[in-house]
Amino acid sequence: MPTIGKPAASSFDLLAQRSELVRVRLVIGVLVALAVLAVLRRLAGGVMMNSPVFWWTLGLLGLGVAYESWMLLASRRAIAADRLIAEWRWRLNSAIEVLIAVGLLVILQLFSPRGDVAAHSAPALLVLPMLVLLSVLQLRPAFTLWTGLAGAGAHAVLAVRAFAVSGAEESALPVYLSYSVLLAITGVAGAGVAMRVRGYVEAAVREEAERKRVQVLARNTLIFGLAKLAEFRDTDTGSHLERISVYCGLLARQMAPSRAFIDDDWVQTLSVASSMHDIGKVGIPDAVLCKPDRLTDDERHVIQRHPGLGHSVLAEVLARNGDDVLLQMSDQIAACHHERWDGAGYPSGLAGEAIPLPARIVAVADVYDALTSPRIYKPAMSHAEASTIIGQGSGTQFDPAVVAAFNAAAGEFDEARGRMAGGGHG
Q1: 119 has a pLDDT exceeding 60
Q2: Rounded to the nearest 5°, which phi and psi values hold at 398?
Q3: What is the three-class DSSP state of 105?
Q4: Among candidates 87, 179, 188, which has minimal Cα distance to 142?
Q5: 422's torsion region: left (phi>0), alpha (psi -120 to 50) or beta?
Q6: In angstroms, rounded to a whole number, what is the distance separating the alpha carbons of residues 399 and 401?
Q7: Per-residue pLDDT tens for 214-224?
Q8: Residue 394 dihedral angles phi and psi, to the nearest 5°
Q9: What does the alpha-carbon distance between residue 2 and residue 216 come to, in Å, rounded to a whole number?
Q10: Within 10 A of 419 (CB to CB), how many other CB atoms are there?
């Protein structure tokens, strides 16, 4: 039976990115709140919020809101596309946030009539600790530690400057630096909290991934078992489903570089879905399906009903669970694996790209296995003979791109055929 792929390695990273999205929203809220506070203090006529301080503060906060809004939009787009934002952008984001917080303190020190006092006022001092606490949501302890230590270092420089211009006694220097020490301690403590939270989240992600893996394994095992039951009615099939699964995987991986949507999950889904290609044969009478001789024209018309029968069965299942990718691909394969590239196939006479790609891949794998497997009425062909026939069908029976993939993987096909030799297919 086909193996089951491992859970996506980026599950935690995607979850962390969603947490980043929440954090960015909160940071925007903090910046907007500071802007509102600046306006209120300006209207109240506060001496520390003179015109230079007010406009520089609003300008810096505006730039911060604009940048964070851009990151918010980028995060939303990335989450919608199920992709990750580059790590360096989040690092840059953290650095810019610290620079904004430190910039607010610099503005107060340089432009306020009482710069040393203004830079140590409660609103100004709360910005950096809030950034440290919010950085816990990044689920990256190093980011939280860096935010705390960088903020502490920057504030220490400003505190030393404020002490120098204040003319205070040397004994007062520790008082000026006390906030920097507390900020560094906050960064270390926050990093510890972020590490613990990250551990909890990673454990939850692993548990969820394992639960889904078991569910997928059970579902795929059941589907493969049902396909095997249909196969057992055909006494000439042997290990056909196992070989088809391997052949389809070889073809899909060969085609992956030119088709971005073909990833490991897609190949894994195809490997399992291919086992359902002949599920419609459960509705074919034994007298036709199990006949040891060649079929008459009437009997062949009867057996040609199996794609439609398989589609009918899977369509009913899909009606109950229409968002299942495996069932959707299984339905495409069951319905269309006997269609031809030139439109001369059955049951619907589809042609070219109108035939779903999974069905076009299974068509080549199915014919190769039929040619290289023995029947009661014929011996197995060699790999070279089968390859010649498939090559001749390029552009008529088969998709030329799939045939090209077959030719590129011919050696792997021959090796797999020899490894799984035995049985046949009708």
Answers
A1: no
A2: -120, 155
A3: helix
A4: 188
A5: left
A6: 5
A7: 766 766 676 76
A8: -65, 125
A9: 12
A10: 9
